[in-house]
Design brief:
heterodimer, A: alpha/beta, Rossmann fold, ten-stranded mixed beta sheet, two-stranded antiparallel sheet, B: alpha/beta, seven-stranded parallel beta sheet, five-stranded parallel beta sheet, 18 strands, elongated
């Protein structure tokens, strides 16, 4: 992140999600096909850490009255991941935890999230590019659409100059340099920065920071647009993918022997 | 009339293989549903994609070469696709699971209140409409997902999931005019190419990846040589990317790309869970690592405990000899 231009105050909102730890064993409720979240350790979605970090760097560069507000939709336990972002240095948080939002798919969640973001007010919305659990990657764009602002996603570099934001959007071969007027939404890739760890002072300070409790009704949301009722996809079944069986492992005396063994294996399997 | 609409990405008119895979799948779904399949190709150079699309089983090829996505981003594509959906009536839409595909799906889903199924590895017509298979939670679970409260929806398709089938001479070509659009003020200033000609690691049939064991950026040449000999793409572990040895576009794993090539060769990669979730669905996994206790040896199909700097170049040589034979 770089900043040029006159002193400038931004109201930044970062959307984050609570996800189960990638290392944790998962199980699903056979009746609802929802994840049993109670017995897994939950963490701040690793992709969202880049968005939080980018917001904090922007705030540090701008100084003064620029604020960073963290917002999340999810169960009450999501308060802990909002708290982690506050410990990293964000100013305040809000959690929309409402039974009416439970079981929502990506589109229903983006709708609920957009109401929360609108209620906070923003010049810039930052998000990660996807979550590690659902791996959808469509919420940032859906959120931008609901907010009616320019959608600048997959940014590996973010620059703010007065009322304009410029990003480098990752492509397979390089990047697109794009700009748009604020307010806007930007999703940040892991190439953008190296997220900080919360300091002890940050962790202590976060305990005193406010996390507003939002409700769908309080935001004027339509219950038939949110949660499971508002979702237009339905999970019919889930099946665990079996572990890959352990194959043959050989100790190669030298490079040629190792290479020959690989070739023989690939040819026997008709892979090449 | 309703259709199966297939959004085809291109680079100056050249399709990626995912485009051909989706054209085939879309045409087959259209046939099952009794509706035409319409391939949509937008942006400058779109007309050059027609010849390739005529080699696929799609019924209609809609060319919107005046839709200025290369100048102002995806806003005009969203508007044009929304107009096409409105004109056609309730239609399914297939999009590639790429950055642009995810943006278009998210925005159209939000605007038109359509369900979005992501990362589909298979799509079929069942009793209640389309059903797609989608990996969740790092591929540890496969979810079977359909649409509800709506007959149609949007499916994002993962590369290397569907077979591409040639069917020459089909495809009626029509022009697709840009929809009148709200200008959100986005400007694409320039397109910067940092690595030319690289096959996308997510859609390559063969991926050769390097990790921490390479020890430095200068050693990626042994990975590149093996990938070139096999006609595959170069991947990398997070450790190699975080060390700055290779760009993020090559990263396979939780914070990189998910790949499912027919052959994945991991060189000097330990195989932590964050890497595994991005490549576990590969057809065949080969691992070469000097550490006999590396976790990758627990789930590879064939492993060599050995020095990558000796085994990999020797393997490259054998592949070349075999191909030359």
């Amino acid at each position: 992140m770089t900043f040029t231009g006159a002193p400038y105050v931004l109201k930044i909102v970062v959307a984050v999600k609570q996800v189960p730890d990638t290392n944790a064993e998962k199980s699903f409720d056979s009746a609802t096909n929802r994840l049993n979240r109670s017995n897994v350790e939950n963490v701040l979605n690793p992709f969202d850490e880049y968005a939080v970090e980018e917001a904090l760097r922007l705030k540090e560069a701008l100084g003064g009255d620029t604020t960073v507000t963290i917002v999340s939709v999810g169960p009450e336990s999501g308060r802990e991941v909002v708290r982690k972002a506050l410990a990293m240095g964000a100013d305040s948080g809000a959690l929309l935890s409402d039974a009416a939002c439970a079981g929502g798919d990506s589109m229903a969640t983006a709708y609920a999230l957009s109401l929360a973001v609108k209620s906070i007010g923003f010049d810039l919305v930052l998000t990660g590019t996807q979550s590690t659990d659902a791996i959808c990657g469509v919420v940032p764009a859906a959120l931008a659409e609901h907010l009616g602002v320019p959608c600048l996603t997959f940014a590996k570099k973010v620059t703010v100059t007065d009322g304009t934001i410029e990003v480098h959007r990752e492509t397979d071969t390089g990047y697109l340099r794009m700009r748009a007027p604020l307010p806007a939404l930007v999703s940040v890739t892991k190439s953008a920065n190296e997220p900080r760890y919360p300091s002890l002072k940050g962790i202590m300070g976060a305990k005193k920071k406010e996390i507003a409790a939002l409700t769908l009704a309080g935001l004027g949301g339509a219950a038939d647009h949110a949660g499971e009722a508002g979702s237009r996809t339905k999970v019919l079944a889930t099946s665990a993918v079996g572990a890959r069986p352990k194959g043959t492992v050989i100790q190669a005396a030298d490079g040629n022997e190792g290479a020959r063994a690989v070739i023989d294996f690939l040819v026997a399997k008709k892979v090449i | 009339m309703p259709a199966v609409i297939i959004y085809i990405e291109h680079q100056a008119g050249a399709l990626r293989r995912i485009g051909l895979e989706m054209a085939t799948k879309g045409a087959d779904l259209g046939k099952s549903l009794g509706v035409p399949s319409v391939a949509v190709v937008l942006g400058a150079g779109a007309e050059k994609a027609v010849d390739q699309l005529k080699q696929t089983p799609v019924d209609v090829i809609a060319v919107g070469d005046k839709v200025p996505i290369e100048k102002i981003g995806l806003d005009p594509a969203v508007d044009t696709l929304a107009a096409l959906l409105a004109e056609r009536g309730p239609s399914h839409m297939l999009l590639p699971s790429s950055n642009a595909g995810k943006d278009l799906a998210g925005r159209l889903g939000a605007r038109l209140r359509l369900g979005v199924i992501t990362e589909a590895t298979d799509v079929a017509v069942g009793d209640g409409g389309l059903t797609a298979q989608s990996p969740k939670f790092g591929g540890s679970v496969t979810a079977s997902i359909s649409f509800k409260d709506s007959d149609v929806g949007i499916v994002l398709c993962r590369p290397n999931s569907f077979a591409a089938r040639k069917e020459a001479g089909k495809g009626e070509v029509i022009a697709l005019a840009p929809a009148a659009a709200a200008d959100r003020g986005i400007v694409v200033e320039e397109s910067v190419t940092q690595e030319a000609g690289a096959v996308g690691v997510d859609e390559a049939g063969i991926v050769v990846s390097g990790g921490r064991g390479l020890g430095g950026p200068e050693h990626f040449d042994i990975i590149e040589a093996l990938a070139a000999a096999l006609g595959g793409a170069v991947g990398a572990s997070r450790a190699a990317v975080d060390a700055g040895w290779i760009s993020h576009g090559h990263q396979v794993g939780q914070t990189g790309k998910s790949v499912s090539p027919s052959l994945y060769i991991a060189c000097g990669i330990s195989g932590a869970i964050q890497h595994k979730v991005g490549m576990r669905s590969s057809g065949t996994i080969v691992a070469i690592n000097k550490d006999a206790n590396a976790p990758i040896f627990e789930f590879c199909d064939f492993g060599v405990v050995g020095d990558i700097f000796k085994v990999v170049p020797a393997l490259t040589q054998l592949v070349k000899e075999r191909k030359g034979a």
